[in-house]
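Example S7 (structure tokens).
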């Protein structure tokens, strides 16, 4: 499978990097392809290195603005003209989407993917790896949206929350 991963391009504490490494290693060991933002920086570089070491094929979708941070060891590296085109390519190439910890860019990516799924424009699994409770607030907000009628379908059909990388891949592979 092509597993698109959204995550931070910042260097982070081990409480975030260790679970990300475990996830990326498992992804590679299961024979999947990592499709990601194409950067060597921060958590993006960590998962690329680990997935590659475990045998994964790497497909980076970079953006001209960040060309100086492009991961040079990718099997395929695409450069898009802007962030909107990058997001479209990341989703187009995905069989499933897994979201690790991240900042505003990651939040932008996951909300767009969920909005498109809500409208039936794709039906790919979307999984948030909830490392150290990072997405607890988002889960609370999404549950409220569901409870108060803002979502046209059950939340569990739009997104799943995983406690670890193995569970995240199980959801992505459709085993849950």
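Recovered sequence:
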């Amino acid at each position: 499978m092509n597993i698109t991963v959204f995550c931070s391009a910042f260097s982070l504490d081990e409480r975030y990097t260790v679970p990300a490494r475990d996830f990326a290693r498992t992804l590679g060991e299961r024979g999947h392809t990592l499709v990601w933002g194409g950067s060597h920086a921060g958590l993006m570089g960590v998962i690329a290195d680990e997935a590659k070491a475990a045998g994964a094929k790497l497909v980076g979708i970079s953006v001209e603005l960040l060309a100086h941070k492009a991961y040079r060891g990718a099997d395929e590296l695409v450069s898009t003209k802007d962030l909107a085109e990058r997001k479209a390519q990341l989703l187009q190439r995905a069989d499933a989407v897994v979201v690790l910890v991240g900042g505003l860019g990651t939040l932008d990516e996951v909300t767009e993917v969920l909005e498109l799924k809500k409208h039936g424009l794709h039906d790919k699994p979307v999984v948030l790896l909830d490392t150290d409770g990072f997405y607890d607030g988002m889960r609370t907000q999404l549950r409220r949206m569901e409870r108060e009628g803002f979502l046209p379908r059950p939340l569990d059909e739009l997104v799943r929350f995983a406690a670890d990388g193995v569970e995240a891949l199980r959801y992505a592979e459709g085993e849950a």
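Notes on this example. The helical segments are 14-29, 42-53, 83-92, 104-118, 136-147, 155-158, 165-172.
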